[in-house]
Amino acid sequence: MEGIRKNVLERFLRYVKINTQSSEEGEGNPSTSEQWDLLRLLEEELNGLGLDDVNLSEGGVVTAFLPGNVKGADLPTIAFIAHVDTYPGTSGKDVKPQLLENYDGGDIVLQGTGAVLSVKENPDLAQYKGETVITTDGTTLLGADDKAGVAEIMTALEFFLKHPELPRGPIKVAFTPDEEIGQGTATFPSIEKFGAHVAYTLDGGAEGEVENETFCADTAIVTFLGKDVHPGYAKGKMVSAVRAASYFVGLFPEESIPETTEGREGYLHPIGINGDVNKVVVPVLVRDFELEMLKVWEAKLEGLAAQTQERFPGLTFSIEIQHSYKNMRYYLDKEPRAVTLALKAVTEAGIDVNLTSIRGGTDVSRLSEMGLPTPNLFAGGRNFHSVNEWVPLVAMEKGVLVVFKLAELWSRETF
Question: Which residue, 3, 16, 58, 228, is the most exposed by fewest CB within 10 angstroms?
């Protein structure tokens, strides 16, 4: 349909220029005040389009409702969801997108730094020769994760209203904060109040991807307690929790860390060493696609901590396990149409489908566990969380088409 490409591009460029980094250290919901700028803009735009029940909650979740236009049977309500925040580890302030129209297929110089986005390291670039490619300028991330998804949903809503010939059942939309820090559903409405039967996040990568699995995720908080004395008189007395923690991390097997694992392989990932000689805390991410394997990984972790204790007599340790989320597959099986219709929608949109898993999780996992089956769909971006992030415009256009197809397919289904 004419105008989709221009619309989704204009929206995307408008949204990425708003700094919406979330923060692990932030207090409240959202974790940063800047996220409100985009949330309020989306509230304003949804009202401007004329959607029903537009609401921006105190916790920073924007929701709205678009009635269906297919008469007859009691149709399921479906939802489309994206998050507004960007990764806290890479600057999202003063994003300056580079727009390469009729891309020549070669390496791309990022004008802010002179760094090169090479085809050798990004082989997907080659397939977009002649298309429009959007990159960062090398000084910040781009924000396609997940403002590409936000732009695609908003563009689809506008076109639904301009083109009543597009069949659809009832549609809910939601835009969430703080997904990047694992808090995207912290203030989400109750599933009963939200009122959708299934949902789709547009938060994936290359066009064609439909993701029906995530990791199961725990965080192990490993605490080492040592004994501090004056270092001048420490012989035979001091037990350094700092040295012990360093030794502990060094014991992690090479085949058990993120840097060496892929596909369906799980891992242990120490993400910090915080403390002093008396006490050090080492948080460790524990990930696997199978829930029972988390216990295996955690037993391995306890063994490494015990080995550390043997190496440092007088050291004590404790491990606290915090549950984060489960593989969404366990919940998607309860409504198989959520995935089968997504695969069909991608195919009918003329895109090669790729059913795959996410080596990550959060919103889709937690929403599914809460009772809202939620597969993840592509949004088009590459190199998320990086100053080398980029997105092809045609991928965002195809994301909009998949929304149209899903709405049409679900308009033929009943409870």
Answer: 58
d(CA 369, CA 6): 37
Are 4-214+327-410 and 216-324 in the same CATH fold? no
Residue among 34, 43, 45, 85 flagged as catalytic: 85
Q: Which of 179, 207, 211, 288 is catalytic?
A: 179
Strand ranges across the sheet with 209-213: 52-56, 62-66, 171-176, 78-83, 198-204, 376-378, 209-213, 354-357
Identify whether 320 is a catalytic site residue. Answer: no
> Quick check: is 290 catalytic?
no
- What is the tens place of the pLDDT at every residue in 131-162? 999 999 999 999 999 999 999 999 999 999 99
Give me the DSSP letters along 145-195: HHHHHHHHHHHHHHHHHH-TTS----EEEEEES-GGGT-TTTTPPPHHHH-
pTM: 0.92
Domain ranges of the chain: 4-214+327-410, 216-324
216-324 under CATH 3.40.50.300, yes or no = no
What is the tens place of the pLDDT at every residue in 63-111? 999 999 998 778 999 999 999 999 999 999 999 999 999 999 999 999 9
